[in-house]
Description:
Layout: H1 14-21, H2 25-32, H3 40-53, H4 59-66, E1 71-76, H5 80-83, H6 87-102, E2 106-111, H7 117-125, E3 132-136, H8 144-151, E4 155-158, E5 173-177, H9 179-192, E6 198-202, H10 209-221, E7 230-232, H11 237-250, E8 256-259, H12 262-274, E9 284-289, H13 292-295, E10 303-306, H14 309-324, E11 338-341, E12 344-346
Parallel strand pairs: 1-2, 1-3, 3-4, 4-5, 5-11, 6-7, 6-8, 8-9, 9-10
Antiparallel strand pairs: 10-12
Amino acid sequence: MVLTQRSNARRPTLEDVARWSGVSKSTVSRVVNGELKVSAEAAVRVREAISALGYVPNQAARQLVTRHTGAVAVVASQPENRLFLDPYFDCLLRGIRGELARHGAQALLLFLDEPDDHARVADYLGGGHVDGAILFSLRPGDRLPEMVDRLGLPAVFGGRPLLRDGHPARGQAYVDGDNRGGARQAVRHLVDLGRERIATVAGPYDQENSAADRLAGYRDILLDTAPHLVERADYTRQGGADAMAALIDRHPDLDAVFVASDLMASGALQVLRERGRRVPEDVAVVGFDDLVAISESTHPPLTTVHQDVGGMGRLMARLLFGRTEQDTWEGDTSEAPSVVVPTRLVVRESA
Length: 351
């Protein structure tokens, strides 16, 4: 591959902008860096000069002055191929990127998939390349909370970070949905419909903390749940289909199922249709997330627990900028800010 050669034309400099606008270099620098101590008239002249000359600030020089890179690492503890196939993550990333753009920051997406990825990502995060990090899709006992704490890097987590012993990581800001409460709403709805043999397709043991919370919410309502009414899957459509098939094989008479994600629920609905089960007449189905691309396109449309996934992404970025805009976090380090987003049941035709 041959890269396009750069033009020999000289790039406009800070001095050129100062001469064109009739102000000092320091005034131009203050306008470029977004400082407020500039008159409105001078700021207008500087911006006109920048536009007319096509001036582009030297980012390396700006970083030396401001100690900011303008970049935020978005770290996903997921295989890359799965991340881009799951509409949940697409919606979350759009929320994060939109809020970062509003702050003039660029998202750098990093993946944790292979065993040596933690060391590689730790080296990158500790190398001064980013101003902070947003980390999500953590597994219980993931090393990421300890890693960013050791680096002293401002960070916000998607989901409640847990230590290896299962206790919450203290001093870490996070945004999470009310997974347990949402699951309780879903299962209580099935009970209120008069369903008696209610199974669940839960998330995997080693995946996200949300899986444990949603299963706990299911068990809060069904205190005497038999273990064989619970089937684990991997938050994919095929995983939901395989889990539904296993549940029907064990319990041909089940009359309801709470599925811990919309994507898995779409696979479950497909299997019920193939097995000749009518939804909701024979088996009522409730999902979780309310991703409209899925929930309104399934047959029948999916009753599900709504959480504002895009809004959660935006909140992560906002919380992060509350931490990066200070050299140090001035609050109680044992109680970093966190947000638990409420959930609500959206009733459609599947239950």
